[in-house]
Each structure stands twice: as structure tokens, then as C-alpha cells.
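Side project, low priority. Logging it here so it doesn't get lost.
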Amino acid sequence: MPHITFTALFVALSLSSIHAETLKGSRPNIVFLLTDDQGYGDMSCHGNPHVKTPFLDQLHAEGTRFTDFQVSPTCSPTRSALMTGRYPFRNGVTHTILERERMTLKATTIAQILKTAGYTTGIFGKWHLGDEAEYQPDQRGFDEVYIHGAGGIGQRYGCSCADAPGNSYFGPWVLHNRVFEKTEDFCTNVFFDGAMKWIEANKEKPFFAYIPTNAPHGPFVAPPEYTKLFRDAGLNNGEAGYYGMVKNIDDNVGRMLAHLKKLGLEEKTLFIFMGDNGHPGVVGKRFNAGQRGNKGSLYQGGTRVASFWRWKGHLSEAVNVDAHCGHIDFLPTMAELAGADLPEGLEVDGRSLLPLLKNPDADWPDRFVISHRGRWGRGKAQEYKHKNYRVRYGKHALIGGKELFDLSKDPSESTNIIEQHPDLVAKMKTAYEKWWDEITPMLVNEDVPYSKTRPFHELFYKQLPDREPRPTIDFSVMKLPAIEKAAVAVTVGRSNESFNKLDNDIPPISKTDYAQANKAIARFVGGSKHAPNGPEGMSILFNGRGTTINKGLDQVLMPRDRAPARVLIDLKKAVDVSSLVTYSGHSDARSGQNYALYGSDAEVKDVKELIAPNLWTPIAKVATERKSFKGFIGVKVVPLEGGSLGRYRYLLMEFRPPVNNNHHSRIHEIDVFGGE
């Protein structure tokens, strides 16, 4: 037995030493899979009890694993660091929207560097570093571009950041080398299909295939067969959607591995899997591998991600690298592997990981590494200088200058030891102050005016003029009188809360109400359109434009610049509506709900005819404040005297910013009750 053990160790060490000298300039093909909002614990090899990921587990078992790989807490900053080897703020990327996701045009990307070494380059999925033409990947070194816009499929904001209008996770429009193409499959399948086709066409030369998936970013929807797996296991719609997306990613990893093997590229290709930040934190049954926090947090749950590197015959298998590494190290590593020289004068913040790939115990000097959440209001950078930042030095993490954790002893970041290490804290704060002073002049997007156009929309309508949007329907002429017909009952968590000085005898939302949701004649849950016991689906208008909505309602119903957002519910025929219930859920604060509800029994040939204000009956006005409350709440519109709210074919919900404009209206579920 001792002999066998020694032999195994000798073989392992020999493999490491043999390949140690061949990694630099070895020019492997590179497949880089970056998933969106998949946390460290969202795979079975890291202990997740809800989802099985055999192919990610295979990468884990057959690869080198970085166990302390750190990124930014949100997606655009992480992506800019991966692409450039520089801190996101040096690239002008401090947010995910509002022009602050745009990566400075002065940045040099890994794609540009790899091209100097003879690589062909392609991106398949989510770019999210600027939607204007000059910021697009084909201007940043990518030969093949197969992407969606904005930060998610179908997203749009009051700035340039916007995907193709009305886009869907199922059969999305994809921008392929500046030309929109309609696809027919689920988005993750689409992007992997595009990558595999391109790899096959370019298999004779070194390639860099960057696959940044949109999944499992919300809204949490997956192909029905995947969702069913987790619904049958007792998970709710959001949980089933999220884990269904993770399972679908895993199956696509399996497809890619099989594809590479079929093409004879298995031992010629470095396959890297990585997440862009922590778990989104909005799914009920989540597993975070014992970490504190989630996406957006500076704790481990927001910044530590899985990082598996598999290269058969070249990298050691089932080996952990425990050194502190991160996104800024990706570019120098890829450049050194490809044998590419960095452009003269290019300064990067990261360093090559090759020494650790050669020997996990290689000397790796401690360094100060800075993270900041960003996402401050326009023009408020200096106000946030000492908020939401993290400094790493070795295994110590300083959060916001107020908490210090020793991750080697306390990976869950539960014990603040800042009082015990004043000298170390002082050094870390000094490093942060120096970093902030250096990056401040590089925040080039902070005062940029918001774009009045959406490049993806403009290009889409230019290429597809028959899909020009309908004229905006303006209901602003409608005046809402004093509410007499309906009452609004509000419940927060398990307790009643009366925002509108309602009478105490008004029935609150209860668990029974929620249990009866499957009896709704029309229901809109998390963006999935269905009607369990009534007509299928709903007709939706958003600001007067017809669209297919299968994204989370919280994304759709967030008015920008106080412009109203509208949802038109078509019940297919006039019915007696007994009540309407809207639910909101949030991990740390229940958002306010602010909308006016109208009804119409008009018979029209085209919904555009519903512009006439005399066709609408005011039903109720809802106005609730945002509250710091973890949980699920509901607002019910119900008649005071019993009976029905009225007989209607259409219901119109007009959303505006909540009371005091302190948050957006966020609605995760709409249930309409009634019938004949």
C-alpha cells in the first residue's frame, strides 16, 4: 500500500513538472464559460442539495479548482475586469446601467491581445459593457459576435442600455455580427449552439470562445421540462425556474465537452468555468455553501465564485488552488498561455496565474485587492467613497472600513476582529485611500448624459421596419375620482398594515388568499403567463407598445423618469371581476405599490381603440410605502359591500413611482378573481 501511494504521488508530481515548462506560450484553444448570477453553492460538487450538475462536477473533478477566486459583486464590473486585467473603476464601469456599464474605449481587451498571437475570437451571449456601436465587441477584438443587448434578454432602461424590444428567453432575437437573427430555442441552448458551430468552423486554428450566458439571471424561467423537475421536487415557481436554468447550463456543458471530444479538441482546449458574482438571493431555497451575503454584497457570498480550469493532459486534475486570486488575473494569464506580449505601456492590476497552475503551492505574495459595489446615484461618487468597499490582503478581508475577518479561520465572516488588528487595518485603509485617489480621474462615465436613444432598438427597427412599435397610447387625460367603489386591504407578512387609513373591518390578505391563487381566472407570476382555470394568458401593453413579456414583472413595471408604465389584462371576454391581488416579495425590503386600476367592457377590434378615456371605469387607487421588511406581501382590491368590482373584458393597471418617489413599483404576481 505505501508503494502504491508513493507511485501515485510520483506520477502526479511528474505530470506537474513535465507540463510546468510547457504552459507558457502553449497556445491552447480556450473555451471560457461565464454564467450570470450563479453562486458558488449552485452546483452539486459544492454541496447543493437541490440541483444535480454532473457535467460541472466533471469539470471540478478533472480540473484545477481555484477555491478563493474573487470578482466584483455585480456583473458589468466583473466582465470589464476579466476583459482587461484592470479594476472595473479604471475602465469607467461603476454600475450595470445608466451609461456607467460602458467600458472606456481606451481599454485593451483580452480578445485584442489574443488576436496578436494568431487567435480567432468569438463571443456568444451577454456582453454588457456598452450597447452603442463603438462599445460593441466587434470593435473590441471579437471576430464573431452573437449576443443580446443590455444586462439581460428583454431588459431596457431610460438610457442606451436596452436589448431588442420585446425580446424573450425563448426564441430570442440575437445580434449576429450586427444583423438581428430570430432563433427558436431557449437562450442558453441558442448561445451554446452558436459557439459549437463556430468552434467547428475554426477548429484548425487557435480560438478563444467566450460564452457569457444570460442564465441563471432573473427572471427565473427555464424550459418546461427543466422547471418540472424541480416543481415535482416541491420547489416553488421561482426556485424551480432558477434551478432549471442551472440544470440546463449543466447539460450544455455536457454538450460542449462531447463536441470538443468529437472534434478531437479535448486535449487541445482549456475549458474554464466561472460565475460573475454571487447568488441573486431572491430564490427561497438557496444554498450558499456557508457564505455570508449574496449578489451585490461585499461579503464572500457576493464576491467568491467557482473557477474550474480543465485541460486534459496538461493541468493537474482534482487539485485545489487556495491562493487568493481574482478576475483581474484572467487577462495576464491568458496572454501568457497564448504567448502574446502585452502592448507597450499597458498596465494591468492582475498577475498571471500560471505559477499556480503549474504548482498550487507556488509562492504567491500577498497583495492588496480592492472591490467596490459602485451603483451610487449620479454624481455621488465621493459620497460613496467609504461605503460598500472591500479590501483583501492575504486571507484578511476589510469590509467598509468597519469589519475585519480572517477567512482562513472564519470563511463565513461571522466574527469581526477589527479591534484586534489596528496596524493591519490601518495599512488596508491606506491602500484603499491610495487606490481611490488613483481611480477617481478614470470614472469617465459619471457625468455622461443619459442617451435619448436605445441603439439596439434603433438597429432592430431599421433592419425590421415591419416591426415598428405601435403609437404610444396616452391615458393621461383620464382623471381618477375619489374612490368609493372599492377598498384596498394590505397585509405585510403575517400582520395587517393599513397604509390608506382603511377601516379595520376590511379583510386583509391572508394565507388562505394566497392558497386560493390557483383559482384565479388570469394570473401573471414572475413573468410567466398562465391562467390555471381561465383563458390562456393575457394581452400586455407596456407604455402602449405591444410586447411578449416573460421577464420578471419587477423589471417591466419600474417606471423611469416618472413616466407611467401600464399593463393591459385581456380576460378574453367580459366577466364579473370579484377582486384583484398584487403581490410583492423582496429579500430585504418590501417595495411599494403605486397604481391606478381601471376596467372596461368595450368591444373593440384593435386594442389601440382603447385609447378613448370614456371606455374606462376607475376602480381603485393603490398607494403603499416601501418598508424595510423581508417577506411577501399582497394588496387586494375588493368591494366594500361584497359582490363584484364590475363586469369587465379589460383591466388596466397604470403604475407610477410610489409615494414620496422612494422606490419603484415592483410587482411579482398579479391574480384576477371572478367569473360568470
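Brief comment: DSSP finds 14 helices and 29 strands in the chain.
Revisit when time allows.
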